[in-house]
Amino acid sequence: MIPSRFPLSGLLVLLFSAGLAFSGEPFEGSFDILVNGTDRAQITLKGKKAKVAPPESVAATNGYPLIDFENMKMRLVSTKDKTWFELPLAMLEARTKSNPPKIEETGKAESLLGLSAKEYLVSDSVSGTKIRIWASSDRSVGINFLLGFQRQGEHGLVLARAARILLAERGLMPLKASASDKSGRDVFKWEVTALHPAVVAASTFEVPEGYKRVSMVAGSAQEKK
After folding, report:
1. What does the pLDDT average to over 195-217?
2. CA dist 190 to 62, 135, 223, Å?
3. What is the pLDDT of residues 32-84, one digit of tens each?
């Protein structure tokens, strides 16, 4: 359990996966994400490391995650009390590998953020969820940055599973998606709104000097001896 002093968004606190294929040019830099038209966040990438600036709507965040998706670990850094603790990501990753949804290319294509993107229709026979995902082969990322959406319910889990297939098996970068439930009701929207290619310093993904490591005990953080 994540303690209350780390109230990071359920959409973006656990976003990453490992071992993905590369098709287009590997991306280094940062990109902006918009969820449901209100939540904004920025993800910075270099090699197999990432840093997430949480959504603006999470006023009490007081911290950020640093992700090492080669070793499937995440460090949550608290800027409020200058501490950090580590969490494994293997369980979330494992859930995306079961019950894969059906994915079909619709034949539609358009330019998004200067990249050529195609539309894919994702269908899950169990939940009735349908998702339209636009993805590009012009850029590649070594992470499933939609992994954490599974915490939002069945439609989020379907999206995370579909993203793993598009990223790992087809080498595509998802750029936007919209989902509806079995009744046809829209349940969420998500999109990358800007790409910022840049050379990122390795120190971006390090815990700041002077921060103390703590361990998780019964839902609270305690200093690690």
Report:
1. 91
2. 24, 12, 37
3. 999 888 888 898 988 888 898 876 544 445 788 888 888 888 898 998 889 99
Q: Which two tokens stand for residue 184?
A: 């046809």
Q: Are 186 and 180 in contact (CB under 8 A)?
A: yes
Cβ neighbours around 202 below 10 Å, total: 9
pLDDT bracket for residue 194 (50, 70, 90): very high
pLDDT digits (tens, 9 = 90+) for 123-165: 999 999 999 999 999 887 767 777 777 777 888 889 889 988 8
Q: Which residues of 160-198 are buried (b: 16+ CB within 10 A; e: fewer)?
A: bbbbbbbbbeebbbbbbbebbeeeeeebbebbbeebeee
- C-alpha 19/C-alpha 22 separation (Å) is 10
Query: What residue ranges define each of the domains in the chain, with the CATH number in brackets?
Result: 25-223 (2.50.20.10)
How far apart (Å, rounded) are the C-alpha atoms in residues 132 and 174? Answer: 10
Q: Angle at the Cα of 144 (from 86 to 126), degrees rounded to 5?
A: 110
> Token pair of 111, please?
């330019």
62 in Cβ contact with 80 (< 8 Å): yes
